[in-house]
Write a structure and sequence with these properties.
With 268 residues, this protein is mainly α. 46% of the residues lie in helices and 7% in strands. The two termini are 20 Å apart.
Length: 268
């Protein structure tokens, strides 16, 4: 019962609307792209230990994020804005984890999502504001494949920065990488069942508003051999337990349990 209540709190925090967040035009993402390629592996896990020890690359991430601090004038629009906001969210998460590494989970840290500690558009903003005040209202369900909050059950962090010109294609690749991971989503035609990420439950409204609903989304991005089955909707849907352990290439987060999550939500 306690775990259920905590899960409800987590979901409620993720669904609280935030303030409008904007970015200015011309933000360069090459430095972030280089860092992702250097420290993220093919499974989307991060070499936080190696990154933490490299002061030059810590500074490079900080310098990249300083681009977002000034007032957004002129304001970026369309996919330029979306790509920049996704990169900012993921980079701010990485910066926050690195500042507090080693840790077992982002939930082991205080107010990771609600605190207004990140400088953007001339003020301090929270991760929730980027997600709920900018990205979900703009691109809906598509945001959930690309925002990575440092958890093992998150969609895998991609090894490239998002760009305005290529964002639609990159978003599709991220979705396919996520649904193609059988530890994160499972399609079982012989059992007429899908076992999918709890993200699809927490943000059900976003997927329901997609053209054709959740089944259409799953059918579009599921592995090719189960795509027709996923699109049919003719199956039982179960949601996998979410592993909030840190997405670390090292040992941190591997043994983060539901008990740890309960403790962190009570005392952090």
């Amino acid at each position: 019962m306690l775990l259920t209540n905590i899960a409800a709190i987590v979901v409620a925090q993720q669904n609280v609307p935030g303030e409008i967040v904007q970015v200015h035009t011309g933000i360069r993402h090459e430095a972030f792209d280089r860092l992702l390629k250097k420290y993220v592996n093919e499974r989307g896990l991060v070499n936080y230990g190696g990154w933490k020890q490299n002061s030059g690359d810590i500074a490079a991430l900080d310098d990249y994020l300083k681009q977002f601090a000034p007032k957004a004038e002129p304001v970026a629009s369309s996919n330029e804005s979306v790509a920049a906001l996704v990169n900012a969210y993921n980079a701010f998460v990485l910066q926050w984890i690195l500042a507090n590494y080693p840790t077992e989970s982002i939930w082991s840290l205080k107010d990771s999502f609600k605190a207004k500690r990140h400088q953007m558009n001339g003020r301090n903003i929270s991760l929730d504001e980027i997600e709920n005040g900018a990205l979900r209202p703009t691109i809906g369900y598509r945001a959930h494949a690309v925002l990575v909050c440092a958890a093992r059950s998150c969609p895998p962090l991609q090894r490239e920065a998002y760009g305005g010109v290529d964002f639609d294609q990159q978003n599709e690749r991220a979705f396919r990488a996520w649904l193609g991971r059988d530890d994160l989503n499972r399609f079982l035609p012989n059992e007429k069942r899908v076992e999918i990420s709890s993200i699809f439950k927490w943000f059900k409204g976003d997927f329901d508003r997609a053209n054709g609903g959740l089944a259409k989304v799953l059918g579009r991005f599921a592995p090719e051999n189960v795509r027709a089955f996923a699109a049919s909707g003719a199956y039982e849907t179960k949601y996998l337990s979410y592993n909030w352990g840190l997405n670390d290439q090292g040992s941190h987060g591997r043994n983060y349990s539901r008990t740890n999550l309960i403790f962190d939500n009570i005392f952090k």
